[in-house]
Specification:
This protein is α+β, with helices and mostly antiparallel strands and 148 residues long. Strands 1-7-6-5-4-3-2 form a 7-stranded antiparallel β-sheet, covered by helices on one side. The chain is 26% helix and 42% strand. It has a domain at 4-23 and 66-147: Alpha-D-Glucose-1,6-Bisphosphate, Chain A, domain 4, CATH 3.30.530.20. Helix 1 packs across helix 2 (119-147). It is built from 2 helices and 7 strands, in the order βαββββββα. The longest helix is centred in the C-terminal third of the chain and has 29 residues, at 119-147.
Length: 148
């Protein structure tokens, strides 16, 4: 199955350190992301490469995720190890913060994923791209609110 990519970019009216502080609180994403009902750490490590979490999504589904890339204050990469209800077989999310500003943080979300469904996934892919783009736009709006 061919991997697909969705990229969303937004300016967040907060400093890069304020945005990073929210993203780096990895186990507690449910505290601010309306798309996550509950979240918890699944290991003793809560930050940096190797930290893992479980998320119960709104309205349904779960994700088990692990941090695979961490550049303090700038880049966070998360692998999706397991997804239920969500129609993907694997995925990786990278958050990139442009740290050149002091009051606004240009933020990019790149989501690379493989849809479930074998050959059918090729046809469902464009629909999933639109849904994912909408979901990540909401994620960035929640991130903006939490970083203030």
């Amino acid at each position: 199955m061919t991997e697909r990519t969705v990229v969303i970019e937004r300016d967040i009216a907060a400093t890069p350190s304020e945005v990073w502080k929210v993203l780096a609180d990895f186990p507690n994403i449910a505290d601010w992301n309306t798309g996550v009902r509950t979240s918890r750490s699944t290991g003793t490590q809560t930050a940096g490469v190797g930290a893992s979490r479980h998320c119960d999504l709104t309205p349904a589904g779960t994700l088990d995720e692990t941090i695979t890339g961490w550049e303090e204050g700038r880049r966070l990469t998360i692998a999706i190890n397991k997804a239920t209800v969500v129609p993907i077989s694997r995925g990786e999310i990278t958050f990139l913060l442009d740290t050149s500003g002091d009051k606004v943080t240009p933020t990019t979300v790149e989501y690379r994923y493989a849809p479930k469904g074998g050959p059918l996934g090729r046809f469902v892919g464009p629909l999933l791209d639109r849904q994912l783009a909408k979901g990540f736009a909401g994620f960035l709006a929640d991130l903006k609110a939490a970083a203030k």
